[in-house]
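Design review, sub-item: ligand-bound model
Attendees: FS, YL, KQ
YL presented the inputs for the adenosine-5'-triphosphate complex:
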Amino acid sequence: MSIQTPSSPERTDFIREIVAADLREGRIETVVTRFPPEPNGYLHIGHAQAICLSFGIAQEFGGRYHLRFDDTNPVKEEQEYIDAIEADIRWLGFDWGEHLYFASDYFEQLYEWAVDLIKAGNAYVDDLSADEIREHRGTFTEPGRESPWRDRPAPESLDLFARMRAGEFPDGARVLRARIDMASPNINLRDPVLYRILHAEHPRTGAAWCVYPTYDFAHGQSDAIEGITHSICTLEFMDHRPLYDWLIENLPVPSRPHQYEFARLNLTYTVMSKRVLLRLVNEGYVRGWDDPRMPTLSGLRRRGFPAEGIRDFATLAGVARAAKVLEVEMLEHAVRNVLNRNALRRFAVLDPLKVVIEDYPERQVEEMEVPNNPEDPSAGSRRVPFTRELWIERDDFMEEPPRKFFRLAPGREVRLRAAYFVTCREVVKDDAGRVVELRCTHDPATRGGDAPDGRRPKATLHWVSAAHAVPAEVRLYDHLFKDPHPGAGGRDLFEDVDPDSETVLRGCLVEPSLADLPVGETVQFERLGYFCPDHDSAPGALVFNRTLTLRDTWAKLQAQGRQDTA
Ligand code: ATP
Ligand code: MG
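KQ shared the predicted structure:
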């Protein structure tokens, strides 16, 4: 295949090149990166890409990586999210060891540095309200206006800042601002807010604080405390970089990190905004944060996507400087690659049609040896019971087959996989004219699936012994949104949710070995696709999710030369 596989070791990108040069030229000794989630939601596939990039670079260049929660906004943050984020990153395959940090651990140090800024004339307490500050900020074309409190003497700001911390003022009464340049063409340098008053309990620091640093004040300084060398983030932070650098230059921080930006990952048929994901959950469009149609890592895991496939996708997607939208089929392609290699093959019939082999002994059971994975001989084989009465897939039979239908039809011979050739002799219908049973005969000389005379039927079907089949519910999943660009053209995004993105099939019948397949293991139902047990599954009430169909449409899209769309 011409498709570049992720295992090719020569991969590089502009960020890896920078890291390699910094090491080569001795600007750094060891590369140290971090992933800084805000614990206000679950991680999604975009975050996975950021993790694979930052953590992957540290691994490849023999450095270390930190997980740091950016928990500076106590109003939206919750312990539930912290736990889920940690579990998801571990599942993705990364272990930060002892390097787990919280921006809130640095609150005291950050406060001291804020005091340093005030003393140096680089920050002041402003009494303007949030609205007034916004009005003073100016626009892209007009400079901002200075606050009347900008030249307040440092001792006065120090006193007020201490009283802000002591809880003397209500929320929003005052803020601490950096004193940079209200005329800067970069709005982020127009005296940005460094601290705000917020009388709110914090998941970790409780009631200890009622002033909280802004993202801009916390982020770079946290990087510096931890000795981060390459602080990798998405493009929306590019305009913040001059502020990031200004703070590092004007504070007695222990190291000098640098920020690098790459383009956010976007996928067709997918929305990654946490605000939208939260609404999908809260308004009942999906079964929860971990619904198999959600782009969250917990959703993809429940859907049966292996972590390796997601890591491979991150490599395949690469690192871009400019925003673009990748085809979701690219992700599916990477996942299929892994599953095709690793997933055990099993028999399952989703829409059963009874087959009776008239010339097969009534009480006989033969254990047919079936390979677990033709792609991987080391996966061995299993024994699948074969009997006189079987289930096959209803759409593997047609009473009046059109020209290109090669599967079972009256008078026609097909192969039952790893069993016998059978020929359809008679079609049994109910009163409504619906086919309810096929009467067949078999050729005993074809046991195992090959004929001594070398004849080869055009079709091979999967099957399940009726006496041994285990009933199951199967949930078929498709893209959650029916439009490749949900909400495009000013449409309400929620109108693009596809109500048929989940189809629940009941009365499916699966081979006995599937009864105790553990949650988290994805198998291939032969000829149908990849499936995994859902966590709703229980003994006697099995539930499987369809991970993916077998059809890889990405290769086709590639061939059409449209692997990315704008
Ligand atoms: P919010 O809009 O709520 O801030 P967020 O997705 O940026 O959402 P964070 O928890 O701040 O949430 O994200 C952590 C890190 O993941 C950030 O550094 C961010 O740059 C990165 N990230 C977020 N979304 C994507 C994406 N779609 N592709 C790549 N990286 C992403
Ligand atoms: Mg963010």
